[in-house]
Structures are given as structure tokens and as C-alpha cells.
Amino acid sequence: MTTRPTGDDLPTVFRRADLGGDEKLDLMEFTLALEELGLSWTRSETQDRFEKADSNLDGFISYEEFRAIMETRGWAGGPVADGPVAHA
Asked: What angle, 0 to 180 degrees and rounded to 10, lies between the N-to-C axes of helices 63-72 and 9-17?
């Protein structure tokens, strides 16, 4: 069962997944964060979501990008943000 996280859960999930401690997630760490939230997709679906979340195209997901995609996609509680992430 997927539990919809609240905005307060996201920093904790992000920190746990940030194995390198560099305050950004690579694709593997992003996958870990999604799995912790109960969001499990195929490798190509996860790659697609990673690319959509990476709004500055640096190859990593910052906390701000992580929170934005989680809220924009409705995967987290809180207001739906209008941002650079396109709706699927």
C-alpha cells in the first residue's frame, strides 16, 4: 500500500536517501527515496520521473526539485505547486 507522505516527511526521506551526504540525489538515491515512499516503478519510468524532476539539468535532484515534483505530481500532501515540471 502506498502512503501519501506529508510535506513534513519529505526532508526525512530525502536525507535518508542521500547516501553521499551531498544534499542531492543521483538516480539510485532517487529510486531509494521513491521506494521508501512506497512508489515503485519500472527502471524506465523512474528514469523518466528523474529527468522531469531535474529542472536545472545538472544530473541530480536537489531537495527543492524533489519536493516540487512530489507536490506537483500529487505524490505528497500540501498544495500542488505550479512549476517547471510538465504534467504527464
From this structure: 130
Q: C-alpha cell of 77?
A: 500532501
What would the pLDDT profile of 5-23 be if each residue is shown by its tens digit?
A: 555 688 999 999 999 999 9
Its pTM stands at: 0.75
Contact yes or no for 30/19 (Cβ under 8 A) = no
Grid coordinates of 68: 516540487
Count of alpha carbons within 13 angstroms of residue 85, beta-carbon side: 24
Asked if residues 24 and 60 have their Cβ atoms less than 8 Å apart, the reply is yes
Domains of the chain in start order, with CATH, are 8-71 (1.10.238.10)
